[in-house]
Amino acid sequence: LGRMACPTQFLCRALRTVGLVLFYYVFSIGITFYNKWLMRDFHFPLFMTLLHLVIIFSFSTLTRFAMQCWTGKPRVTLPWKVYLSKVAPTALATALDIGLSNWSFLFITISLYTMTKSSAVLFILFFSLVFKLEEPNPFLILVVLLIASGLFMFTLKSTQFNLEGFIMVLLASFIGGIRWTLTQVLMQKAELGLQNPIDTMYHLQPLMFLGLFPLFLLNEGLSVSTTEKLFRVSELSHLLYSLVTLTVGGMLAFGLGFSEFLLVSRTSSLTLSIAGIFKEVCTLLLAVEFMGDKMSTVNWLGFAVCLSGISLHVGLKTYYNKGNGPMVRQLPFQDDMNVLNRLVECVPLKA
Predict the structure, then answer these.
(1) What pLDDT, in 10s, does the model give residues 133-178?
(2) What is the dihedral of CA 136, 139, 141, 143, to 10 degrees?
């Protein structure tokens, strides 16, 4: 009976893992295509991001309340001095990363966005070395060369290349490197009590809103206040349509964080990293098939080279964390326009 139970148990675990990965894909791929679709008619990405932050904060507040009622233990709330000094830098970097990423959808294709965002691994590695979160390793040079050369090949002679959008995503990736380094430091400080991603998300959103709001006023404030899609609508149905579509995006963003947390807690951060690699492939294939993105043979080859660099980084991280070499601390693996965005990789969870 024990031997019969083993294959059955293995099959159940495998099906559960596949189900959790597919659940994660629905939100991760869905929010990328949804935001791109929304940006075709609604040209206010910063306003959209601000509304998403409000929605995510509301959901995280309700989740914290439910967790407190369930466990009977109060959730952590940081004092103002610690909150402003420790959380503010991470919140500002996160707000700029997400804001610029969403903004770029006005200019570039999903395929170019996906590839350029993958370069965030380079900046994460760089700042992790600067902050001594990861020890120097010769193989990291190969990782950097593969990802950088892959990105160059992908953008080479691209017929749908847009310099303005490309610079926005590249800048977002650079800021994302700072963001993830600061996030890891923030979550690894046990005295702050922010090991749970829901608590981290709850504390980040208000400061993210305040950090992004001046940029919104400067670039979109007047346009939003005079647009017929929101404040100068002629029919109530148009206003409701705008609010509903924006709210759905916020729910997708929160759902992405929840699905990531669920996937890692029931499997491992390695599963999330590997699933993220295949997600990039699925995103590109869907963009070519349904969004009209055009890719040459050189572009596809560049994509393959970039993925090989990311895969090598995941493999090295797994190898060293098993005690086969110098210890490399867990690095959050980058993803587009989600407030948790793999924060769970910093949390020591058990399967």
Answers:
(1) 666 777 777 877 887 788 777 766 565 677 888 888 888 888 877 7
(2) -120
Contacts of 268 (CB under 8 A, 6+ apart): 351
User: H helices of 134-235, where?
Assistant: 138-155, 163-188, 197-219, 221-226
- pLDDT tens, position by position, 342-351: 333 333 333 3
Query: Which tokens is 41 given?
Result: 């008619």
* Distance of alpha carbon 314 from the chain centroid: 17
The amino acid that residue 80 corresponds to is: W
For 95, the enclosing helix (H) or strand (E) is: helix 88-104
How would you label 33-72 residue by residue, b for 16+ Cβ within 10 Å and e otherwise?
A: ebbbebbeebbbbbbbbbbbbebbbebbeebbeeeeeeee
Q: Quick check: 123 and 116 in contact, CB under 8 A?
A: no
Tokens of 80: 């103002």
Concatenated DSSP letters of 250-280:
HHHHHHHHHHHHHHHHHS-HHHHHHHHHHHH
In whole angstroms, what is the distance from residue 108 CA to residue 112 CA? Answer: 7
Distance CA 224, CA 156 (A): 36
DSSP state, residue 109: -
Collapse the DSSP code of 153 into the 3-class scheme (helix H, G, I; strand E, B; otherwise coil) and give the result: helix
Encode burial over 161-192: b for 16+ CB neighbours within 10 A, e otherwise. ebeebbebbbebbbbbbbbbbbbbbbbbeeeb
pTM surpassing 0.85? Answer: no
How far is residue 59's CA from residue 65's CA, in Å, rounded to a whole number?
Answer: 10
